[in-house]
Design goal:
Blueprint (H helix, E strand, L loop, with lengths): L1 E2 L9 E5 L4 E8 L16 E4 L1 H7 L3 E3 L6 E4 L14 E5 L6 E10 L4 E11 L9 E6 L7 E6 L8 E8 L4 E8 L6 E9 L7 E4 L5 E16 L4 E16 L7 E8 L3 E10 L11
Antiparallel strand pairs: 1-17, 2-3, 3-19, 4-6, 5-8, 6-7, 7-14, 8-13, 9-12, 9-14, 10-11, 10-13, 15-16, 16-17, 16-18, 18-19
Amino acid sequence: MFHCHFFFSSFLRMLFIAAFSFFVQEVFAQKILNGNFEDNSASECKTNLVNEEFSSFMKNCYAYGAGNELDIQDGQCGYGTPFEGKWFISLATPSGPDGFALQLSSPFISGVTYRISFEALASTMFGNGLDSLVFGVSDSKEVQGTEIFSIQPIQNDKWQKKEFSFKSPATGIYLTIQNKGERRAWNFIDDVKMVNDPSPINFSTSPVAGFVTVNEKEMTELRVVDKDGKIVKSEKLQMANEVEIDTTGFTEKNYSLVIVTRKKTLSYRFVNAEEKDPAEIKKED
């Protein structure tokens, strides 16, 4: 049940006291895990990796493409330098397109609008052709899923920043990226990330355990979605500015909180964890 009332309080961190135990509930902006590719176990340049090898080196990043020749490059490979940090990924189109899936902190929700930014360039060191980069939403790390965007990177020795918005056609925990596969080509990509709304949402808790207050202007709908994309709570609102969510009965640790207003739709990761297990309670960057 959602209750409308007037109450203002702190942003993001939410604490409340239950009768016999303490719980922490937090709301984080959604993010792409390891979109800068820095979290990996490769100690040096790795080229022409079959999918299983690539996935074994990378965290939260899984190869699936038919090309089977993904590269984990650093500046020592001799083919280019990262946009930032030490590492970037390159995708070839040999007999088929390379592709990989990046895991999200919480799933894309069908019907919600998101914005993605990334750095890319096309290299001419592998063939003379050009091939598009294709982005998708998937609930599996082994398939492309539903296409949401494609672009032909520019042949250049400098990274080009690109952004795109999309309304998610499905619920999925992976953002997939692959070459289109039309011609023999080599694309470089780095710094893939969500562009979150710059206006913060205010969250707080009721003195009574099990309630969270959301403060945002002109809300028309709130949804709480579990990790599998199932809606566990939903309510239509009449341009509400404050809504109280009853969280009693929430048994999972992670949920997505979807906030629909007259002007925008926002998605946040909602964490429900026991304070006695502090290792599970950490704020994302």
